[in-house]
Amino acid sequence: MRSSDLSASELQPRRLHLLYHELRESESEYSYIVTTQQFAGHLALLCADESVQAGPRPEFTFDDGHISDFEHALPLLSEQRVKASFFITAGWTGSRTGYMGWSELRALQEAGHSIGAHGWSHALLPHCSDVELDQELRVARLVLEDRLGSAIDSMSFPGGRYDKRVLKACHQAGYTRLYTSEPRTHLSGGVIGRVNVRGSMTNTYLQKLFDERSGALTSLERQYVLKAFLQKLLGDRFYASLWSMINRKQPDADAVSKA
Ligand SMILES: [Zn+2]
User: Fold this and answer.
1) CA 89–ligand 1 middle distance (angstroms)
2) In-domain check, residue 234
3) How far does the centroid of ligand 1 lie from the alpha carbon of residue 146, in Å?
4) pLDDT tens for residues 237-247?
5) Residue ranges in 90-215 assigned as alpha helix (H)
6) How far is the CA of 112 from the centre of ligand 1 (A)?
7) What domain range is 160 assigned to?
8) Residue 45 included in any domain
9) Which of 76, 178, 193, 246 is a Cys-bridge partner for 182, taking CB atoms 3.0 to 4.6 Å apart?
10) Cα of 47 to ligand 1 centre, how many Å?
11) Does residue 167 belong to any structural domain of this protein?
């Protein structure tokens, strides 16, 4: 096969995008929490000069705007000189306990990190009416731009959920870089996939995700497809209860859209 026969995606180096939520100093039963020690280990494994990682460095992304992004992730990222992307639920900024305010977001920006949107209220976008979608996408972007004084052109879908209507609305609202939580390295419909990093993932397992021959990423992607099927079959409310039970989290307003 000549190189011109290869599609653009096949020519792209395999790059993983990692998704984090909250960092804590101590371990938690809630599977979405990664300890600061684990995160420091991930940076050393994948980004340090003596890293064993041969391919392109992963992109580190954080969803929801937890205060731990500023308190714990920022110093560790600075130590390894790694730039990350932070996706912010605009309506929670400065108004919800445990989440960042505008001064913390500005500090992330000043340190060279990228800020993107994660909706206004963390609503699942395919369920929104046109008016709600406008608030979640366009208004969220305008408020972030106004308060941070810079262009916001990236967006991660709450709960990783989107459909054709949401994609169209995102483009109309001015977002050019879109992220979901489906674990894959290829672009699908222009949307970037990410591996949702959990506290139970070991460094050995993370390394396997980068090794195409291990099949670990393919297996993770299959699990995600099965989960999406169950979500559709059971409906979001019942699935949210099941999700909270599996992930050891008390159901709350956020839980329905996390998985
Ligand atoms: Zn989220």
Assistant:
1) 8
2) no
3) 22
4) 666 776 666 66
5) 102-110, 130-134, 140-148, 164-172, 203-210
6) 22
7) 15-213
8) yes
9) 193
10) 25
11) yes
